[in-house]
Write a structure and sequence with these properties.
Length: 167
């Protein structure tokens, strides 16, 4: 009997591809992709040991998969203790799942009023789509956090999924 081992990102990408190919609106796509991420959420070993170390300067992103047609990208993000994003929104839908540690997320309305917070822990999966996607992510713990993000675009082509930063 031959056992074929499939890389976790391969299985996740296949599930995301199925979800994206349903051609739902952005919110619907984010929900469908979140279902796939829940089914296929890998562990932190999806990144190399060196990648899991992160950077002392800022959170670090690692591109794990870009769909050939540019319809989505899968990114691993490593957050050392205290690292934080600026308040921002996105150019497309986004789904994320925590695979190590805890990420604190602050959610804002269009007037930049804080409307909620979440402490996303290992196994938590969430998604959103513009408008209504203004947030900031912060590692408020003393341990490294790692999350997988799936964006509805080819991030290697556009350079960033951030549409705007807010003061």
């Amino acid at each position: 009997m031959t056992i074929t081992l499939t890389h976790p990102i391969t299985a996740l990408a296949a599930g995301v591809r199925t979800a994206v190919n349903k051609h739902a609106d952005w919110s619907g796509t984010a929900e469908l992709v979140a279902e796939q991420l829940r089914l296929h959420l890998p562990g932190p070993d999806v990144l190399t040991a060196e990648q899991r170390d992160g950077s002392p300067d800022s959170y670090r992103s690692h591109t794990l998969h870009v769909e050939p047609d540019g319809s989505f990208s899968i990114i691993g993000i490593v957050w050392r203790p205290g690292q934080i994003t600026r308040i921002h929104d996105h150019v497309t839908w986004c789904v994320f799942g925590v695979i190590q540690g805890t990420e604190h997320e602050e959610l804002y309305d269009a007037d930049l009023r804080l409307v909620g917070t979440n402490d996303n822990r290992v196994g938590d999966v969430s998604g959103f789509a513009p408008p209504g996607d203004i947030h900031r992510v912060h590692n408020t713990t003393d341990a490294t956090a790692i999350s997988l993000h799936i964006y509805g675009t080819d991030v290697t082509r556009i350079g960033s999924t951030v549409r705007r930063y807010y003061d």
